[in-house]
Design brief:
By secondary structure, the chain is of the alpha/beta class. The chain contains 12 helices and 13 strands. Strands 1-9-8-5-4-2-3 form a 7-stranded mixed sheet, sandwiched between helices. α3 crosses α4 and α3 (57-67) packs across α6. The longest helix is centred in the middle third of the chain and has 18 residues, at 242-259. The structure holds pyridoxal-5'-phosphate. Pyridoxal-5'-phosphate (PLP) binds at residues 56-58, 82-83, 85-86, 126, 152, 154-155, 176, 178, 189. Keywords: Aminotransferase, Pyridoxal phosphate, Transferase.
């Protein structure tokens, strides 16, 4: 019985051929024409004016902050539930992240809970797992409070809000190409923007602040966050079939959500919109212990992954004040099921059958900090629909 990993990269013969062809072509490996082509295809795919690729999603976020002029003395709103790179880059830039609780339906930053300070200049909004909520509302919120909006769309390439691609709602949007993301170039990230000056600043920052590519004249202190053509040829192939890759992610999510719909202790969050591309198949455990479930799956040759911890519980962010009820709750209960798009249907079935055969262990009140799901998703959904119709 093979082990089913929680996630494996999806590579095709075309990726392999493209790399081989490139290596035989005499290219110099570093970024050049293939990188420019990848950037152009990416910009076209999301309908942005500029796309610039760099070494990682983290580097892309960091350069975004610098290019937008966020630094010491500024604070930035960041969700409490995201990959830790999101607040880390704020600290790298010398600014201060202010963590904010998340919304129980989208798992994204809850605009009603944002605590603004006089020094708050920006928000990094993270469409977590492809869910975004209403991006026009997010944009409107930032505009009305004079905040710069950075969309950390690392998990959301191809997802849309009201027909517009995520990553294009903010002043800048960022993507990641690490192996488990929607497309992968091994490592890598991209910044998209419609702002010529920001794009130019980012281009300089990633390349030693050169006035022109390849010219050793510098009008500032830059980094070397350049991409490579070797990576770009893989990225180009993957963008060519991005619709297939997206459909694969949808298929995995749909299979579990449909075939496990009657399992009461496992709750699939609605995608919210047909425009959402689920990056991972995510689910919340209801009233049952997480670790025994993960152990059981592993014993049966199936890798699952627990949600990110809420960031305020991580030592670098332990100084954050405020209430984080929803992020604490969903992080305690959330698991990512195997989500590789190339999983054959017999493997998907194996995951389904293994879960169906499980006898969950109820949570014992005294032993867990979050004894039972105190956040009733169904209830909160009804309430928010009611308040939306008020
Ligand atoms: C993956 C990810 C990142 C970091 O991207 P890297 O390419 O791994 O540096 C940042 N933010 C979010 C939300 C991510 O999912």
């Amino acid at each position: 019985m093979n082990f089913i990993h929680q996630i494996e990269p999806y590579l095709t013969e075309n990726d392999i051929a493209a790399v081989t062809d490139y290596l035989r072509s005499g290219g110099w490996l570093t970024e050049f024409q293939k990188t420019a082509e990848f950037e152009q295809r990416l910009a076209e795919f999301v309908s942005a004016k500029h796309a610039t690729v760099v070494t990682s999603g983290t580097a892309a976020l960091y350069l975004s902050l610098l290019a937008l002029g966020i630094g010491p003395g500024d604070s930035v709103i960041v969700p409490d539930f995201t990959m830790i790179a999101t607040p880390n880059v704020v600290r790298w830039a010398g600014a201060e992240p202010i963590l904010c609780d998340v919304d129980p339906q989208t798992l994204c930053l809850d605009l009603n809970k944002v605590r603004l300070r006089p020094d708050t200049l920006a928000m990094i909004y993270v469409p977590i797992n492809g869910r975004s909520g209403d991006m026009q509302q997010v944009r409107q919120f930032c505009r009305s409070h004079g905040l710069v909006l950075i969309e950390d769309a690392c998990q959301a390439l191809g997802s849309q809000s009201a027909g517009q691609k995520l990553g294009t709602f903010g002043d800048v949007g960022v993507f990641s190409f690490t192996p488990h993301k929607i497309i992968t170039t091994g490592q890598g990230g991209a910044i998209v923007t419609n702002d010529d000056a920001v794009a130019e600043k980012i281009r300089k920052l990633k390349d030693f602040h050169r006035l022109q590519p390849g010219v050793d004249q510098h009008d500032g202190i830059g980094f070397n966050f350049k991409f490579t053509d070797l990576q770009a040829v893989i990225g180009i192939e993957q963008l060519k079939i991005i619709e297939e890759r997206i459909e694969g992610r949808r298929n995995v999510w749909r299979t579990y959500a449909e075939q496990l719909a009657d399992i009461e202790w496992l709750q699939f969050l609605p995608l919210g919109s047909d425009d959402t591309v689920p990056w991972f198949a995510d689910a919340l455990l209801n009233g049952v212990q997480k670790q025994p479930f993960l152990d059981y799956m592993k014993q049966n040759g199936i890798g699952c992954r627990t949600f990110y911890p809420p960031l305020h519980t991580q030592p670098p962010y332990a100084d954050q004040t405020g209430e984080f009820l929803v992020s604490s709750d969903i992080a305690a209960r959330g698991v990512w099921l195997p989500s590789s798009i190339q999983m054959p249907s017999d493997e998907l079935n194996r995951v389904v059958e293994t879960i169906r055969a499980y006898t969950p262990q109820a949570i014992e009140e005294q032993q867990t900090p979050l004894p039972k799901p105190h956040w009733d998703l169904a209830k909160s959904r009804v309430e928010s629909q009611q308040s939306a119709s008020d």
